[in-house]
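// run 5 | inverse folding | seed 20
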């Protein structure tokens, strides 16, 4: 039966330190997870662990880019932020927005930095220096070792702007655009593969907002010109995900796909969740929305593709997602905009959101946490230092280890009743399998009680050492800060043998198990 034994020292520490230990004597809660390495959902695209940087508050300026700071390298990139991004690692990076993208004129951001025009920025009520532009972004991606993803301006921009941006960045031809690129210091094209066709064009808050019909037609012409410039690029259409804002999100997606189904490779969806009501159990159920909306969007994609050849595919890109509800409010000029501070319950929600992406790995092929630093972000800086927010830790564990194929799990867990979703299991899971290595992600949503979970392998056996990485903290509201790390990953190991691995998951925790299957 149970062949799992935590090392004595860690186990003892856990019992003494954990407030749930006494209550645990009441009636133990148990759950069962059946896993079978042949039941594959799909390949986990590494781009599920992407990120996003926007010209917004202190994300770029004062986050990744701080010229003349002793903390920055010769390119003006903050070394501590770059190291933090490498340690996630970030597998894809979206830029320049976001709402900012819809009035961004990329030619303002090339050439000698001191000659670039300052512009009034209307998405977030700021002034844009243009000192960080295309060359800086692509240089940053090279240093970080990540896949760039550029979102073009389909708000106030033209088809020609979009086409010439692809030409400037990707073309090997000898043209005015490529000569300009060379003159600005870059001989070889960068060959950026992922291009977004605008941002949240369904929203009235967007500069250059259009109806689905108007956007579909406009984006189609941009898409044609962009793909004719470089047929190897992949295009991400701006879908709608704002079903709470009175926008007909399903209708928008269907109309847009009718126009773009032969040109778009991905449909972009966004999701931000929050805990405005301060209702823990409702909040930690939020990720169910991702699975439900994914299923609906997949149906819309299938309907649009029903008249197309069978090999035509459109995937889903959740290219903005996170917890975001505190630092919203009205437009602000200046610095502290959208500087959300995260706590443990937010980290648990992030882990369940990542579970939802992995559990839909057959159709979700891109996901970009919004955003990388300072602005609704896993890293936070001031002029002197950096700290890792609580949400950094689950993202890091997923990005580092949840690779390979996603497995379909049978989860039999005690449940609670949620107002929005009905019965919700306390245990939320996903699993990845690759070369005999199993990774299981398990969140125990229970606020007070541990749950003993039996992981039952159907077609193989556990063998050798199990690595157990747990993200937890003293309280669901615990936050990290400069010089204070209350929530982080703690690792221990244990042995496992046979078909069953049993692990006690502490209350309000996210645990990643890495085990060998033979
Ligand atoms: O990430 C912050 C903002 O959220 C983005 O600019 C916009 O696309 C979304 O509404
Ligand atoms: O805050 C304005 C808009 O409202 C955001 O861009 C969008 O994400 C949200 O629905």
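// decoded
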């Amino acid at each position: 039966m149970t062949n799992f034994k935590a090392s004595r020292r860690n186990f003892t520490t856990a019992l003494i330190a954990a407030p749930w230990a006494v209550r645990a004597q009441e009636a133990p809660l148990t759950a069962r997870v059946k896993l079978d390495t042949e039941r594959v959902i799909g390949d986990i695209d590494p781009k599920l662990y992407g990120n996003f940087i926007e010209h917004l508050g202190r994300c770029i300026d004062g986050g990744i880019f701080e010229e003349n700071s002793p903390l920055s390298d010769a390119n003006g990139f903050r070394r501590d932020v770059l190291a933090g991004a490498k340690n996630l690692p970030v597998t894809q990076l979206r830029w320049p927005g976001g709402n900012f993208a819809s009035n961004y004129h990329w030619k303002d951001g090339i050439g000698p930095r001191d000659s670039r025009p300052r512009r009034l920025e209307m998405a977030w009520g700021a002034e844009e220096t243009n000192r960080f532009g295309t060359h800086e972004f692509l240089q940053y991606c090279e240093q970080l070792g990540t896949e760039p993803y550029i979102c073009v301006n389909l708000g106030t921009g033209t088809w020609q702007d979009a086409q010439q941006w692809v030409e400037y960045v990707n073309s090997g031809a000898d043209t005015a655009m490529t000569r300009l690129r060379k003159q600005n210091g870059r001989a070889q094209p960068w060959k950026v593969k992922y291009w977004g066709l605008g941002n949240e064009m369904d929203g009235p808050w967007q500069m250059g907002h259009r109806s689905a019909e108007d956007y579909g037609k406009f984006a189609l012409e941009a898409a044609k010109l962009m793909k004719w410039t470089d047929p190897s690029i992949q295009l991400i259409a701006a879908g709608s995900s704002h079903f709470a804002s009175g926008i007909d999100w399903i209708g928008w997606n269907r109309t847009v796909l009718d126009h773009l189904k032969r040109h778009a490779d991905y449909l972009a969806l966004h999701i931000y969740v929050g805990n405005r009501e301060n209702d823990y159990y409702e909040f930690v159920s939020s990720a169910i929305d991702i699975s439900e909306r994914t299923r609906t969007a997949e149906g819309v994609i299938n309907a649009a593709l029903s008249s197309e050849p069978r090999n035509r595919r459109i995937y889903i890109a959740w290219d903005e997602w996170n917890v975001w509800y505190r630092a919203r409010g009205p437009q602000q000029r200046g610095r502290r905009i959208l500087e959300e501070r995260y706590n443990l319950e937010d980290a648990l929600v992030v882990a369940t959101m990542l579970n939802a992406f992995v559990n839909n790995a057959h159709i979700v092929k891109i996901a970009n946490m919004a955003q990388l630093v300072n602005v609704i972000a896993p890293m936070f800086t001031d002029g002197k230092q950096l700290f890792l927010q609580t949400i950094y830790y689950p993202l890091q564990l997923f990005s580092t280890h949840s690779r390979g194929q996603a497995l379909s799990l049978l989860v039999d867990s005690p449940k609670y009743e949620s107002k929005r979703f009905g019965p919700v299991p306390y245990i939320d899971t996903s699993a990845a399998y690759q070369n005999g290595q199993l990774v299981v992600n398990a969140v125990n949503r229970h606020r007070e009680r541990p749950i003993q979970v039996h992981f039952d392998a159907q077609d193989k056996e556990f063998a050798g050492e199990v690595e157990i990485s747990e993200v937890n903290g003293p309280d669901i509201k615990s936050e990290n800060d400069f010089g204070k790390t209350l929530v982080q990953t703690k690792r221990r190991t244990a042995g496992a043998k046979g078909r069953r691995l049993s692990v006690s998951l502490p209350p309000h925790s996210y645990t990643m198990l890495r085990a060998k299957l033979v």
